[in-house]
Amino acid sequence: MKYLLVLNINPDVLSALSETEQQAIFSGHEKFMAAIQESGEFHSTAALAEPAKTSVVKVRDGVPAVTDGPFLEAKEFLAGYYLIDVASLERAQELAALIPDAAIEGLGVEVRPIIHEVGL
To answer: The whole model's pTM is what?
Structure first.
């Protein structure tokens, strides 16, 4: 079964970390990627740009309008994800616990089952 491991970032939490702690997060992601690629559980991943580089498209009465920034004001924003293919929810949760973000106060990793996919 496939699961999306969702990484939500709070910039205030990250900026409170030391340079060494921030670097540990990045190297931890590299180790995590290597481990799930080696185990065959890796499907794909993506890192997303910060909300300042985001646009929102809305169509009203057939007319598209584009605005800057995220739709909702929030402290956290979607920063990226891992798509994994594992045997069980428990394994997905086990892998989520290995992502460095899960160990940082104020952050976490959301585990969501994929219920439908096309062309992946």
So the answer is: 0.86
